[in-house]
Amino acid sequence: MGNLISSQSPPADSPAKLLDVQAVAGLLDCSTRHVYRLSDAGRMPRPIKLGSLVRWPRSVIEQWIADGCPKAARRRQGGDDAK
Length: 83
What we know:
By secondary structure, this protein is an alpha+beta fold. The chain has a domain at 18-66. Helices cover 31% and strands 12% of the residues. The protein has three helices and three strands, in the order βααββα. Strands 1-3-2 form a three-stranded antiparallel β-sheet. A hairpin with a 2-residue loop joins strand 2 (48-50) and strand 3 (53-57). It is globular and about 35 Å long. The mean pLDDT is 84.
């Protein structure tokens, strides 16, 4: 019978699908503080917040780097009605 939740951890050689700030800083060769500054300024993709955790999808960060680290598009606060 198949369980929906697997108790097995991913193989050790498989890359994580979500990156923490230290992993992103390692890919960018910068400090973790600089990653937070880039994120806060909208100069990189927005992270996913899981409770108190902050993570970036590996595929999004790798594509952003491959594209030359363009400024990330930001949505305005308040939705479409905000002016």
